[in-house]
Structures are given as C-alpha cells and as structure tokens.
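WARN retry 2 of 3 for item q-0093 after timeout on previous attempt; input resubmitted unchanged.
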Amino acid sequence: MSLTTDVLNQQPLSGRWLALAILMLPVLLVTVDNTVLSFALPKIAEALHPSASQQLWMIDAYSLVLAGLLISMGSLGDRKGHRKLLMIGSLGFTIVSVMTAYSSTAAQLIAGRACMGIFGAMLMPSTLALIRSLFEDREERRLAVAIWATSLTAGSALGPLIGGILLESFSWGSIFLLAVPVLVPLLILGPLLLPESESDASGPMDALSTVQSMVALSALVYSIKHVASDGPDALALITLSIAIVIGWQFVRRQLRLPMPLMDLSLFRNKTFSGSVTINLMSLAFLVGFVFFSTQFLQIVLHMSPLRASLALIPGQIMAIAIGILIVPVSQRVSVNVLIPVLLAFTAGAFLLVASLGSSLTVLVVAFALLNIGVGAIATVSNDVILSAAPSAKAGAASAISETAYEVGVVLGTTLLGGLVTAYYRGALQLPDFLTPLQMHLASETLAGAHAVSATLTGDQANEVMQSATRAFEGGTSLMAWATFSLAVLAILVAKCTLKTPNATHA
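OK item q-0093 returned
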C-alpha cells in the first residue's frame, strides 16, 4: 500500500510524526476498551444484574466482532482508502459508544459492545497501514511500529487507571463516553494531517470467509463460556463441533482462493507463526490477569475504583516505558534469546500469584512483572512479524498480527476468566439461610455474592463473603498455575520457532 507521489513529497518528517500522534488516538481507545470494562464490572453488576455468562460476553462481544472483521476491514481499506475507513470507523465508534453508555439492560450493553467492535475493526488496520505508508525508511518505521505496539499494550494497561478515575466520580456509563474526547480530535484533524492512500480494487471481497471466521470464533467462545457457567453438556459439544467444522472449512477455503481473506501461506515461515502465537498468548495473559485482579481489589479488598487503579500504576508505567526502551535492545539481541527472556517475566508474574496468593503486594509486583514481559513482547513480536513477511505481503501480515491481538484478548477472558468462573461456581459453599434467589445470584459471580451480602447484616453478610472469597481465590490460584504452565509452553515455542535473527525486509 503506498501513498500518491505528490503527498509523499509534501509530507516532511515533522508532519509524519504529527500524523503518527493522531493515529495513536484510535489505537489507544480501542485497546483501552479491552480492559476498562473489566474494571467497571462490579458497578455494572450492581446496576444491570448480569449472569456470569453475560459478564463474560460484555467483555468478549467487542473483541470477538473486532477479531472477526479486522482482516475484512483491512481489505476494504485497501480498496476504498484507509483514511476514509478510519474516519467512518471513528464517527461510528463515537456514536455507538454514546448509545452504549445509556444501556438499561445487560443485553443492550452486549449488543452495543458488538456494534463497537464493527467500527473498531475499521480503525486498527487503517492505523498500521498508514504507518507503513508514512514511514518508508526501515529505522523510522521500526520506531513508528514500536510506538504503535507500545500504544496497544499501554492502552490495555491504562484501562484500569482510566476506569478507576472515571468510576470514582461518575457512573459506569462514563467509560464509554471516553470515545468522544478521544475521537473528536481525530475527526477534525485527520483529514488535514493524514493523506489518503491509493485505492486498490483488485479482487472481490470474500464475504463467505468473513462469515466463516466469525461463526467459528463465536461458536468456540460460546462453547467455552457455556462450560464455565453451566458445565459440559450437549449444547457445549454441539457448539464446539460447529466451531471445528466451520474453522476447518475456513482454512480449506483460504488455501484454495487465489486472493484469500487470510494469507495462511505466511504461517509456513516458522519465525512468523511463532511470533504471532506468542503475541496472542501474551495478550491473553494480560487480559486474564486484569479480569480477576480488578474484581479482587475492589470486592475482596474493598478498594475504591480509583485506589484499585492506582495500585496498578507501577505495571502501567512499566508497560509504556519498556515498549520504547526495548527497541535498541532488540537491535542487538537475537529474537530467539530476547523473547524467551521476556516470557520468563510473564511466567514469574503468575508463579508469584500461584505461590503467594492474591494479596495487594503480590498483585502490584506481579502486574509490574507481567507488563515488563507483555509490553516488550508487543513491540518485538510486531516488528518480527512485519520483518519476517515479504514486503509484498506486509498488509496481510499486519492484519494477521492485529487479529492475533484481539483473539488473545478474547481467549484471555474466555479461557482464563472462564476457568476462574468455573472453579468459583463448583467450589462455592453457601450457607443454608439464603433464599433460592440469593443462592442463585451469589453462585453466578463474585459481584453477585457481594450484592447479596449487602442485603444481609453482621455475621450472615461476613459468612457469605468469606465463602465467596475462598472460592474466588481458589479459582485465581488454579488460573495462575495454568497460565504459568502456558507461559512455560510459550517459552518452548519461542525457542523452537524463532531460530533466525530479525529479517531485514524493507
């Protein structure tokens, strides 16, 4: 993808970096939305009374739709122009965010999040495509991609802080109204600072592949969530079977099409496939950690949203700083050495929680360790992904990278969050004095148990919360051990696949 010659000649270096700053606004917003909702779940649970499954869908509906549409929207941007798609996506995201802020039911909020995913999918591919076009120099592009990747991690890490500040003074709907001050400047300045890309109408849009990818992902996520909330049954088996069959058909179709929606031939490169896998897993680790820690800090430790978010600031600072500081290191250290070392930090974070529990000190230190690893991995792996792919397939490579990011977000909530939820429901032992309705609410989620305890007094309230806390901590410990094992597996994947140093494709 390239810009017109006239525009390239008119764009000075300072103009390119200013354009990059504008492009980071939607990147930060889309990634903040991946974690800020986890922080607002306790307040949303009080207001909308969602079930355990609905709580998980509130988080995942957004990322699921986003992941399913990223590649299609990248292809649409190639045909219609990435700046145009960026402007349409920004306007739509702003409008839907405002509407979602005033949801009166859990179903409305889930639907709003799904619609936000549609417009969010228009934003992400356009930002990286315009970066590739703006920065033709390899070193300039390396730094620009590092800033882009750091924004991805920083947005996810800053979600709890931003959520805490907003929720301290405003209702839970304020986290969605954040889109207005962030995207309005882009809508005003974007047409002035961002040059339009050349359109490429070659090849038809493959709607069937888009549908197949979304159906397969949705069925897989639904199956996992259903097992977490209701246990394994026929419905879970049916939806899992649908995911496998449709996913297999999607892969077959991509291998046959002359212009596939997802260029699977890129995965023949072990460095590329290994980097994508590690990128996906590291984001899953981060989102899974945020899912349980934000609830633990607010509900178990009785911290206000602001105090809880401030407790995670050391990790947020680490994520932002390491994303940039790792650039000179990555130029000197081989990727098959650097990434396993970074993964060791993520493994250490979950080993700490698994071994010592979920005290405030442990969570603060673990979140900092986790962000050192994930923040640097986001920068290094995205640069490796773009470098490992031939220059002619840079667009397809970046689309796969972005899709892996969002799939990682979905799996972080679905697998890791679902594991905590499943253990909680299985291990929870509630006292007999609760009514059937109170038992149902308390057994759904930790927030539900907290809401039930608020209707009780004295020893009865304490007994309910002690039982719920034990079950939640048990689920957290199980999840931490499982994630530690996955992080060790990721280290082995890195050692086996990242055998060569960074390529130097321009």
